[in-house]
Amino acid sequence: IGIDMSLNDAEVLAYADPPFIIVENLFCCFFFFEIVVRFVAFTRASMAFGDRWFVFDLALVVLMVAETWIMFLVVRISTDPSQSQEQAFDSSVLRLLKLVRITRVARIARLLRQVPEVMILLKGIGVASRSVFFTCLILLCVVYIFAIALTQLSEDTKLGQTYFPTLADGMFSLLFHGCFFQGLPDFAKLCFQENFMYGFSLLVFVVLAPLTVMNMIVGVLVEVVGIVAAAEQEASTRKSLLESLHKALEKLDLQMTATITKVEFCKIVNRPDIVTVFMEAGIDIVALLRDPDIVFAGDSDMNLDEFLEELITLRGANVATVKDLGQLKTQILREMKQRRGLR
Predict the structure, then answer these.
(1) d(CA 316, CA 286)
(2) 3-state SS record for the chain
(3) Higher confidence at residue 51 or residue 343?
(4) 230 to each of 61, 86, 120, 233, 282, how far by Cα in Å?
(5) What are the phi and psi torsion angles at 259 (to 5°)?
(6) Do 191 and 198 meet the contact criterion of CB atoms below 8 Å apart?
(7) Looking at the predicted structure, is the pLDDT value of residue 70 above 90?
(8) Residue ranges of the domains in the chain?
(9) d(CA 32, CA 135)
């Protein structure tokens, strides 16, 4: 994309040099073949259009096919080859075609989603957008209040003429000089030279706006990204466990259904590969082997989703919750009943 933007001056592929035409067609063939293979891989068409990433990639491929093949043929048929693209198309049409070319940048999303760390950051920013918006609103209110005060106080002074001639200019000065520290020393020096109160007001603003409110934004982002990363880790662990269980059941000639029995579970945990997966996930496999009822709670089978949730809660790094205490109480009562029955 970068090479094409730098070296290809043609807004329409039909007017580009042959190397660019060949490369664009190769890319178009590759992505078209890929999207067809992915579509065929779905058992039902509704499942394909329910996959957001597939729909996104399909939209990119449709735009690419329209630009590379359909538009190429239309231009070749409807225009005179001897004309330049400026003569063949109106300037507004060329601007529209340029916007279509810019949509190629969206292909970068295909690469970003292959890097989990980047996706976690993007999801964190998306989740934190509401909190960041209100924090920025607080910052804007602080800038507005101090801009009003300093604009009125510095009227008919060099400070007012330079930085606060109007309210809008005052907000601009406080935002870029006070919050982003662009030329802040000169700004602060002039404030203190004019009047100590001006300098003190600027000092209070710097403490409130960039040092407090803007750092709140950083804190919000860090907190939310941490939460999103933990949630993504949980989802990854759950997916890994589900895939491992599926493979183990296939090797044991058992079917993957919506429930799992205690017998199937005992067969699964005796496999070394499953034990390795459980240990990598931090699950206490020793406790599971000693007493499978920790998971099944005395039942012969349980729902697969509930089973995975129970496995995830058995990780050693988890913090004890009220739910864990309730399960412990239930298990103790069950053990007491069993012992009384034996007597």
Answers:
(1) 11
(2) CHHHHHHCCCCCHHHCCHHHHHHHHHHHHHHHHHHHHHHHHCCCHHHHHHCHHHHHHHHHHHHHHHHHHHHHHHHHHHCCCCCCHHHHCCHHHHHHHHHHHHHHHHHHHHHHCCCHHHHHHHHHHHHHHHHHHHHHHHHHHHHHHHHHHHHHHCCCCHHHHHHCCCHHHHHHHHHHHHHCCCCHHHHHHHHHHHCHHHHHHHHHHHHHHHHHHHHHHHHHHHHHHHHHHHHHHHHHHHHHHHHHHHHHHHHCCCCCCCEEEHHHHHHHHCCHHHHHHHHHCCECHHHHHHCCHHHHCCCCEEEHHHHHHHHHHCECCCCCCHHHHHHHHHHHHHHHHHHHHHC
(3) 51
(4) 34, 54, 10, 5, 14
(5) -125, 160
(6) yes
(7) no
(8) 2-114, 118-231, 257-342
(9) 44
Dig out the tokens for 124 from the structure. 């964190």
For the chain, the residue count is: 343
At 173 the pLDDT is 93
198 closest CA partner among 162, 249, 231, 248:
162
Task: Tell me which amino acid residue 132 is.
Answer: V
- List, for residues 250-307, the tens digit of each pLDDT value: 666 655 556 777 777 777 777 777 777 777 777 777 777 777 777 776 677 777 777 7
Residue 141 CA, distance from chain mean position: 29
Please give the distance of CA 140 from its chain centroid, rounded to a whole number: 27
The pair of three-digit structure tokens given for residue 129, joined into one six-digit string: 């957008």
Question: Structure tokens of 49?
Answer: 């259009």
Amino acid at 77: I
CATH of 118-231, picked from 1.10.238, 1.10.287, 1.25.40, 2.60.120, is 1.10.287
Output the pTM of the full model. 0.61
The token duo for 205 is 């603003």
